[in-house]
Amino acid sequence: MHTVIPDQSISATLLKEVTIAKLQSRTANIGVIGLGYVGLPLALLFTEEGFPVTGFDIDSTKIDTLVSLRSYICRIPETEIALASDRGFRATSNFMWISKMDAIVICVPTPLTEYREPDLSYVTETVKSIAPHLKAGQLVVLESTTYPGTTEEIVVPLLEERNFSDLRVSRNDSEASNVVFVAFSPEREDPGNNTVARNEIPKIVGGVDRHASEIATALYGSIFSRTVPVSSTTVAEMTKLLENIYRCVNIALVNELKLLCLRMNIDIWEVIAAAATKPFGFQPFYPGPGLGGHCIPIDPFYLAWKAKEFDFATRFIELAGEINMAMPYHMVEFIAEALNVRCKALNGSKIMVLGVSYKKDIDDLRESPAITIIEALQKSGAIVVYNDPYFPKIGKGRKYDLQMQCVPLEQISQYDCVVILTDHSSYDYQKIVDEAQLVVDTRNATSGILSEKIVRC
Ligand SMILES: NC(=O)c1ccc[n+]([C@@H]2O[C@H](COP(=O)([O-])OP(=O)(O)OC[C@H]3O[C@@H](n4cnc5c(N)ncnc54)[C@H](O)[C@@H]3O)[C@@H](O)[C@H]2O)c1
């Protein structure tokens, strides 16, 4: 352990001003930790804006892929990686480089454990890895979605405990000289949604103190067209959860109403389209076969867990979770019923699933309801294959152990039932309906196509 002797002439304000000046002149070294769906695009955005950027990841396959100028995310073409590399982007697993960074942004996963409790192990491991390399004046920002309090209760104490100098986290705008600055800024990306450019999504920023908030605002202000500073890290953390809980609850509401509409023989899609014409007070949400992705099915339960510490039951979250989690099983019942009407049993039927990613036009399988549905169909004795242009194969995941290869669409007529689980834009739905024996459509992808072969649910 070495001791850094603080130079008392360098106050926190001076450290802050130096870092902000580097950010404004785009000479600040930016480190992005966790080069996944969030971290890699962010690192590329900083690179594009002229910053020297280093990406850190413990996954050596990802680092090797980037070093050889290839991409592992469909929507990021290899040309973009090559261009970033020309502009100075580097990817590494060596955390020694942390000491050279001016701002460090953490974008690692925040999943749930098998008992549906927050799993912060990726965050804590990351903090332990960077703490020994920190130096005074650096900014550390957590972007991973998490419950209010994580930054100050988990990240800050770990940073102080694990660094091998006497660095402290700047608090209460003090003028201590041996400080790093810490902030939280949630990622608000909507994968597959190209209607808003990423840098046009306003960036929420909350610092542990005002110094941190000002540096983080300067960091994101250099690449986002608007930053929204809030008073604390907890407000920033809670803002992200409010956004995702709002989606989760409204999707649950529309999923439940879909089940009711099916029973009442009302077309929920037509109802939503009609309601969406109201110019105020209504935002359309759309039903589906269940919730997927790394955010909406998971994040609300971070808050539900934290609320227990305050003797508080988050009933909306629990109810929404219950409805959304049951949707894949309802879909299996609808498929069985559709086959039954044609005098076929689920047991032994050949079923082709179209689309396995959790939403259209993206290559992300995390928490996808397709996995639950395929597993449940197989358990009932169905012979299931799938097609998805984004997944040549499905291998073992965190919570499942499927071994499947994508089959071509050509032999669609051989299957007793085709189930549309993800409405990828590349599918020719008219052709699918023409060739299939039976189509169960969980996404309204066949809207406008008239055929007795279609069962919409
Ligand atoms: N994917 C989204 O659309 C989205 C949107 C908004 C917010 N978020 C949040 O952003 C965070 C990251 O999500 P993601 O989708 O990018 O996850 P991801 O799994 O795609 O990427 C995370 C990366 O972190 C790396 N990693 C894990 N532990 C590490 C460590 N100790 N050191 C360095 N790297 C490490 C992994 O190898 C992986 O490459 C999550 O908290 C998520 O909730 C995601």
From TrEMBL:
Residues 352-448 form the UDP-glucose/GDP-mannose dehydrogenase C-terminal domain. Coiled coil: none annotated. One of its GO terms (molecular function) is oxidoreductase activity, acting on the CH-OH group of donors, NAD or NADP as acceptor. The keyword Transit peptide does not apply. GO terms for biological process: polysaccharide biosynthetic process. Keywords: NAD, Oxidoreductase. InterPro entries: 6-PGluconate_DH-like_C_sf (IPR008927), NAD(P)-bd_dom_sf (IPR036291), UDP-Glc/GDP-Man (IPR017476), UDP-Glc/GDP-Man_DH_C (IPR014027), UDP-Glc/GDP-Man_DH_C_sf (IPR036220), UDP-Glc/GDP-Man_DH_dimer (IPR014026), UDP-Glc/GDP-Man_DH_N (IPR001732), UDP_ManNAc/GlcNAc_DH (IPR028359). Belongs to the UDP-glucose/GDP-mannose dehydrogenase family. This is UDP-N-acetyl-D-glucosamine dehydrogenase. The lineage of its organism: Bacteria, Pseudomonadati, Acidobacteriota, Terriglobia, Terriglobales.
